[in-house]
Amino acid sequence: MELFNLTIHELHGMLNKGETTSEAITESVLGRIKAVDGKVRSYITVTEEVARTQAKQADQAGKSGKAPSPVTGIPVAIKDNMCTEGVKTTCASRILGNFIPPYNATVVENLNKAGYVMPGKANMDEFAMGSSTENSGYFVTRNPWDLERIPGGSSGGSAAAVAAGECIAALGSDTGGSIRQPAACCGVVGLKPTYGRVSRFGLVAFASSLDQIGPITKDVTDAAIIMNLIGGHDPKDSTSADLAMPDFTSSLKKDVKGMTIGIPREYFIDGMDPEVDRSVRDAVKTLEGLGAKVVDVTLPHTGYAVATYYILATSEASSNLARYDGVKYGFRAEGAKDLLDMYMKSRSQGFGPEVKRRIMLGTYALSAGYYDAFYKKGQQVRTLIKRDFDEAFKSVDVIATPTAPTAAFKIGEKSEDPLQMYLSDIFTISVNLAGIPGISIPCGFTKSNLPIGLQLLGKHFDEAAIFRAAFAYEQATDHHKKRPKL
Ligand code: GLN
Description:
The chain has helices spanning 8-16, 22-40, 48-63, 106-113, 156-164, 180-186, 220-230, 274-289, 305-320, 339-350, 353-366, 372-392, 418-423, 429-434, 463-476, and strands at 43-46, 76-79, 120-122, 169-174, 189-192, 212-217, 260-264, 293-297, 398-402, 438-445, 451-458. It is α/β, with parallel strands linked by helices. Helix 5 (156-164) runs parallel beside helix 6 (180-186) and helix 9 (305-320) packs across helix 12 (372-392). It starts with 7 loop residues before the first helix and ends in a 10-residue tail after the last helix.
């Protein structure tokens, strides 16, 4: 197999044995980007120079006998909403088209310290608002399994890049499913950690009470490896939890004996694609065969999740995005008559239609006279949704659901109908509202060869349990080994 198709742990093993070099791996990935990115369009910025310099440094460190980390010399793509010092960070928005951060996000800093290689900054929906990457202010990313289809979103560039071999692994962010849903659409692994597990310092804010950064990888082991490096307390993020970090690779065991897996009846609904339904049910049977006890659970407030999310996320977004006013940084429109006109022109020209829609929705939900009816009510329902999970987790270790109701849809199919688009998040957003961790892993393919995702959810800060179940399932199947033909 080509180097670009291998995993972090496979390449790490080869590096340790002297069978390859970081320069060779990096050239393989950069060559792959040259060969396929014209079709897939995963990257907003390819950082060839940075990557080559980092690869050289990694190889030199290896020669000098410095103990490598598991990602030393390995190319990991960064979603373009995480600040990278000296490298443009656009959030896929025109309003940040010229923004070069003077600092690194904590996650990037951590990977840097571990000696990783950055091949580039991945495309996304503008400000992470979307489920298809069609809302990018620059271009649409295509699904490597079928170029006519969406890669999912908002971390669509990251997931497509991993699936297409345009990086070895990637970082994404997940506010309402943006790591898990694109991972499902592209046939890769995506983990949204518990809220507070990974520092958000240097992540461009969308909805601060929901946003989390996490890995998108080719298999579960790689996700655990990245989590070990990016997780943990960060004094620069007041919402990051001051808790000890387990070694997640030690939770990767081949069985699930003694584990109880809950199946929420609210997640197997009419309108779900029958092929998705069947694959997920088969996956649960596989887990049962590996020793898990499977029981029914109920999450009665699930039906309110989409509405609740779109009140709370847009409210937080309207507040967070008020900072883009053309004054200190970012895009400033030409030809304004006065200050107010400059604000209005800069924001009108700088933001795309979905971002404007969200700012208007959120401003409305927070406005005097409507706050109690919308924002406050949303917060109350959020508590009920969280309590549903607390109750269910009294009797189970892990909850299994589909990641998305359908496989990847066609480009353009839902872009004119925001509500249909919002409904693609129906199985992922409750998880962000509750703050719990969730992973999506490949669990099969449709007849037309599109990947299907299984979602596994855990208790707060119990990523270890979902890693264990996910790894056991993965070892018993080979969906994760398939690569798209490009
Ligand atoms: N698709 C959801 C939205 O548009 C989730 C996005 C995300 O997780 N960043 O808000």
